[in-house]
Amino acid sequence: MKERILTGDRITGKLHLGHYVGSLKNRVELQNQYETYLLLADVQALTTHFEKPELIEQNLRNVALDYLSAGINPDKATIFVQSLIPEIAELTTYFSMFVTVNSLRHNPTIKSEAKERGFQDMYYGFLGYPVSQTADITFCKATLVPIGEDQLPHIEQTRKIVRRFNQLYKPVLLEPKPLIGDVPRLIGLDGNNKMSKSLGNAIHLDSTQEEVNEKIKKATTDPARVHKMDIGHPDICPIYAYHQTFRKEGSDEIYESCKKGQIGCMECKLKIAQSINDFLEPMRERRIVYQNNPKMVYEILMSGTEKAQLVAKETMQEIREAMSMNYF
Ligand code: ATP
Ligand code: MG
After folding, report:
1. What class of enzyme is it (predicted)?
2. What ligand 1 atom has the least distance to the C-alpha of 199?
3. Which residues contact 318 (CB under 8 A, 6 or more apart)?
């Protein structure tokens, strides 16, 4: 039997370049080798968007289109909707009996996300989302989880929960490993934060050529550079980070010219905007096909969800048996 991959995205908005280099690229590359499960995390989206569930609904189709246009093959990968697998919620409840509040409070990603969102007192569901992610990963017995760097503490927490469950009851769960992408944390257009759906600092995978050009034009660069001939600091410039990511061959030259004040920010931006547009072009072409056929997208999600439901039922039977809860 092929090993399984589980990963996914909160459907809080359209996917961006950070998603691609952090996780999506690995998913596309590994879908032939692994049985791949891709989760549209609507429940997890509620941890920060419970007041606006209608936004989540709108994004469901967008994220599915992002997957398909990025090269996910629906004949190989199983794309499914989290809230339609009630076993995930059930497993989350069981795991939460033996996960301490302090272990969640000390999780560095939880801490920084709570700070970013200005949470004084954390919501129960938000604090516990790494437990729910553990249920996502374990219900389908995934052994590999392609993610960006911010997710590493959660995988560590998942591994601990799996070990604890197996030790408390029976060894039915598998310990997964993380797989970090080429770029573990792509910086956002603001130059301060990771590129993120929620922070308005992203270039989305469905951007038109004009949108890419406009966003790159407005992006923050090295604040010390006022004139073209000023000495630059490419290490702190998001535009240089994009050169390294999307224009690898030319990026050493850019680095040197920026440091010596031989290339202006405008010229540097034009080059990278062109490369990002070249990179997105095949995705745009694939997107049109799926966009014009919403019924096909709907059927892909339906059949993926049905397949995940069967796997969840099987695992849940084992879980209940391990916990001596198969009463009748
Ligand atoms: P939100 O702001 O709503 O949390 P997000 O942009 O952080 O959105 P998620 O759905 O939380 O996106 O993350 C999905 C996956 O993409 C995770 O594996 C995450 O690590 C990865 N990822 C997200 N942003 C980046 C980034 N800028 N660089 C690398 N990987 C990223
Ligand atoms: Mg996130």
Report:
1. ligase
2. 2
3. 172
Determine the distance separating the centroid of ligand 2 and the alpha carbon of 181, expressed in angstroms. Answer: 15
Q: Does 11 sit in the ligand 1 pocket, CB within 6 Å?
A: no
For the chain, domains (ranges, CATH) are 4-186+293-322 (3.40.50.620), 209-287 (1.10.240.10)
Query: What are the structure tokens assigned to 147, written together?
Result: 């993610």
**What end-to-end distance do the CA atoms of the chain give, in Å?**
31
Q: How much is the ipTM here?
A: 0.95
Q: Which residues pair with 108 in a beta bridge?
A: none
Q: How far apart are CA 15 and CA 225, in angstroms?
A: 31
Q: What does the pLDDT read at residue 245?
A: 95
The whole-number pLDDT of residue 229 equals 82
User: Probe ligand 1: pick from 150, 180, 189, max atoms within 8 Å of CB?
Assistant: 150
Rounded to the nearest whole angstrom, what is the distance from the C-alpha of residue 19 to the centroid of ligand 1? 6
pLDDT digits (tens, 9 = 90+) for 228-240: 788 889 999 999 9
Model pTM score: 0.94
Ligand 1 atom nearest residue 24's Cα: 16
Q: Which atom of ligand 1 is nearest to the CA of 187?
A: 27
3-state secondary structure at position 194: strand
- Distance between Cα 286 and ligand 1 center (Å): 23
166-170, 247-251, 268-272: which range is least confident on average? 247-251
Backbone Cα Rg of the chain = 21
